[in-house]
Specification:
With about 90 residues, the protein is an alpha+beta fold. Helices cover about 40% and strands about 30% of the residues. It contains 2 helices and 4 strands. Helix 1 crosses helix 2. The chain is flat. The chain starts with a strand and ends with a helix.
Amino acid sequence: MQQNDFKSSSKGIQMLVDIRRYTIVPGMLKAYLEVYERHGLPVQRRHVGDPLGYFISEVGELNQVVHLWGYEDAADRQQRRAQMERVLICTES
């Protein structure tokens, strides 16, 4: 996981960008994307919001998935991710 602060002085926009990169088992990318779209993304959207970006690699290091999530700041990220984690833990019990 990587976190970058994005700041635009011309518009006064500040944002914490959480960059998440995952390596998928070769040959399983299509299955991963189908399962994530059906089960993972709806939960994340409900608690974390829409991703800023979601990318897969076609050249270079293959079998990579990159998510970009935007937050107001580190406290906002911690609060939203903790809320999602509580829901997932309750679901697993």
